[in-house]
Amino acid sequence: MMTLEQLGVLQRSQLETWMAVTEEAVNGVNRLIGLNLQALKTGLGETEHCLHDAAGAHDAGEWWNAQARYLQPAGERVSGYTRNFVEIGVETQNGIARALQRHGDEVRRQWGFLAENLVDAAPPGAEAAVNFFKASVGLEVAAAEAAEDAGTSRILSPSDVTAKDGTAH
User: What would be one Pfam family of this protein (predicted)?
Assistant: First the structure.
């Protein structure tokens, strides 16, 4: 029979996994928020300059020149934003994959131990319930392994998802 201590170890393992994955996700979101705030601040500043230049134009040629001076840096800024966005996404995905890999083996081991204890403690005549439980735990472990394999089969780099011109594939 599973003791309270063993149950605590299982819950602690699951909590550590959840916390590691959550920490990676929150760090990625924080970085994206910082990137968006920086892009907004820069964009507003450049837009203000462009509007002042355009408002001070004496003819259509000066107005168009003011617009053109704004468009090139804006395009470069969008390209840089895309590169940073992809980099943050890839690093966050890789961090989550590493966290799952690091903690997944321990959680699966604990679930296997729990299943063995419950099967050993089953009363006579409960073979159908035991077989159902074993199948359920087996499917749970297989699903967890498949998800982990999908997330960790290939650690990505930003260049894997970014074209040479800085746009996402």
Answer: Phasin_2
